[in-house]
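Running co-folding for fe (ii) ion.
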Amino acid sequence: MFPDLAYVSQTACSNIINHSGTTKESTLAENNNFTIHALELGPMENFIYLLHDHSSDTAAIVDPAWDVEEMLALADEKGIRITDILLTHSHHDHVNGIETVLAHTDAQIHLLKTEARFWGKNLVKPKLHHGGDTIKIGATDIRVLHTPGHTPGSACYHAGSELIAGDTLFVFGCGRCDLQGGDPEEMFSTLKRIKSELPGDTILHPGHNYSPAHPTTSMDVQCEGNPFLHFDEQQDFIEYRMHVHDRIRSTPYEAVSKEEALKSIGR
Ligand SMILES: [Fe+2]
């Protein structure tokens, strides 16, 4: 079980300033006033997030799955009301706690329209989004990014300087593209866009804890050491993602230099 990580957004500083027992606190983006709590739950190292808006004491739960009761208990304990469920994508390990959350709250489900079509599940009045939409939790704005590649309607959620990335981008890794609906060409474009459009001090919150020494990092650190961000040519990325990576690398992930990544595909 990974400890609850709480990222408190108050000032422009990305250092973790306090680590006592099971809670880490960090001060992050200015002009935002929210906290991201993270719990690692289930047998697949999934991260379940709670984005808590301080002004309203309401929150969105992101990818509710596995022992999601633990997150409900955490919200209860802190006096937080869960008003929304945000899905990064529809894979079982990210959604199998939805019913439990709905049994305890009247939360609104959000996902991309493309993912809802791909999934084909009958959800209770879901709010279907397009990339570029904004979801409001109290006074906190969350921007919805459409990031296809792992699934057709994968989403990342961007608030302040924080990026909740689902299975699109992991710390020193990225989501598989060989499952149904996966597409390495799309993933290449998605990662290129994330790399070029998000500031280097953006903090990545991945969908799985595949690099336990670094549960989160900045995009600057990812651009330096995430092998999937090292390829300039689409064909090289596809070769690495689809044929090389899983043969030569396993978790826990650590940084890989650009030179090492290119060498692994014979460049
Ligand atoms: Fe997934």
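Result summary
The first strand starts at residue 2 and ends at 8.
DSSP finds eight helices and 17 strands in the chain.
Job closed.
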